[in-house]
Amino acid sequence: xxxxxxxxLGPSGLDLTQAFFKPISGAASPSSxxxxxxxxxxxxxxxxxxxxxxxxxxxxxDELVLVDAKPEKLRGEMLDLQHAAAxxxxxxxxxDVDYAVTHGSDLCIVTAGxxxxxxxxxxxxxxxxVALFRNVIPPLAKYSPDTILLIVSNPVDILTYVxxxxxxxxxxxxxxxxxxxxxxxxxxxxxxxxxVNAQDVQAYIVGEHGDSSVALxxxxxxxxxxxxxxxxxxxxxxxxxxxxxxxxxxxxxxxxVISLKGYTSWAxxxxxxxxxxxxLRDQRKIHPVSVLAKGFYGVDGGDVFxxxxxxxxxxxxxxxxxxxxTDEETQRLRDSANTILEQQSQLGL
Length: 349
Known about the structure:
The protein is of the alpha/beta class. It folds into 2 domains: 35-176, NAD(P)-binding Rossmann-like Domain (Rossmann fold), CATH 3.40.50.720; 179-346, Alpha-Beta Complex (L-2-Hydroxyisocaproate Dehydrogenase, Chain A, domain 2). Helix content is 40%, strand content 18%. It has helices at residues 17-20, 46-57, 71-82, 122-143, 156-167, 180-194, 227-233, 240-261, 266-280, 327-344; strands at residues 2-3, 8-9, 14-15, 38-42, 63-67, 92-96, 107-110, 148-151, 174-176, 201-202, 205-206, 214-215, 221-222, 225-226, 285-292, 305-313, 316-320. The chain has a 7-stranded mixed β-sheet with strand order 1-6-5-4-7-8-9, sandwiched between helices. The protein has a 3-stranded antiparallel β-sheet with strand order 10-13-14. It has a 3-stranded antiparallel β-sheet with strand order 15-16-17. The longest helix has 22 residues, at 122-143. The radius of gyration is 22 Å and the shape is globular. The mean pLDDT is 87. Keywords: NAD, Oxidoreductase.
């Protein structure tokens, strides 16, 4: 439908590629070992476009595909990005309403989702998003059977489970953005409290991407120094209420941004681009993302996706980090899993 063009000018489509360049005798053909990276972003809303824009600036893809149900907005977003070509790494940008355009994608990022109507219950919204996913996930799996699905749509944990069921993919190739952004907010708040760089703070939020998330206070470190054990050894008193208040700010952060500007976009854009980088560049970095959690940390009530510190690479989810949890943190994580399972049970999948 809509795509970028190259090598032609004018209404007749005159091909200037051969005329513009004089070939060099004996020039080597393109290397067959160079990997062509293709990323498809499903949903051209505020979140989808923030992700697309961040991916472009980070030179992560050779080809970027946008898919949305609104053709006019889709074409406008595509053109807007193409017009910035002189300021960006070379990337072929394609946009279409037809999922066939996603063929051969290395990574499919799903941001499409219904918005909550005033007075609508969360369960009804969930049912509408499940119905939407029935039209989104199967064609992605059909056209890119070897792709990795990265789910961003909310409620992300349940919809990652739905995507896993609908795709038929192994769980290692279906991952949700989960609490990766929550953990970034957590690190920022701790760094701000201690007046250090957030990159020097190691801290995770796990469990549900929502109100039942769990802050792993026992594993927080700054510059390699475990914070709570350091305070204990130095006999420095701290109040649990202070820690809980920081966690509450993390939970409320998205609500605050939405109330101020109407939606969240930039932070989730950077968060998802970081996940895409870790996966496609085989970085094997640890990210708190939504994975199939059954069998980890005593979560055994059923198939449930929730965020755990996981190693990401070219194969998707490579493993789950064996982080030490206190008994209280373990119980809270199980409670979070049960919260998600209770909602899933009402879907009839």
